[in-house]
User: Fold this.
Amino acid sequence: MDPFEYVVVITSLISGLGIAQILTGTADIISGLKNIKLSGSLSLMVFTTFLNLIQEWYYNYQYATHVASWTLLVVLGLLIYPILLFVLARMLFPTGLKSGVTDLRAYFQEQWKWLYGISISIIVVSAFHDVFYSGFTLLDQTPKFIIISSYLFFIVLDVKSQKAHFIFQLFQTAGVVGFIVFTDSPLIDYNLINE
Assistant:
């Protein structure tokens, strides 16, 4: 095994745990649907986070060609993104002490600042990866800076409107789906890299 294979195993494991959180939480909601008040904003965040976890796993293979030297600092830098996605996936569903919560609208209203703060962190780390590992420029990160500004707008102005949150999350979801559809690139043939 080469260094990339070791790294991709741990990042895939963390992404897999995040996906498991999303699937488990979704199954719990479906199984108790008659006792749960759904939140459109939270549902969209769940779907977007799921897509981001899949995307993280898929795009991890680019690092086989983009990273020349696998130091511990590089590995830790690359692990931050899937770890933050896992934390977000875990926080999207009321668990532990809040397991009795059945009003997901109230849960989202209580937690949205934390969820948005983690989302900002994820985007910042993604921009960092793009610049330092994938060779993109800061100018290429403009869409990410706009998204960060949008999240900050909600946090700073303490926007309480469920409708505003839903519209914002709808745009977020459309952006992620659009990115996946319009920039779909083939998975790197890792065997060709090693030959």
DSSP finds eight helices and no strands in the chain. Residues 131 and 137 are 6 Å apart (CA to CA). The first helix runs from residue 3 to 31.
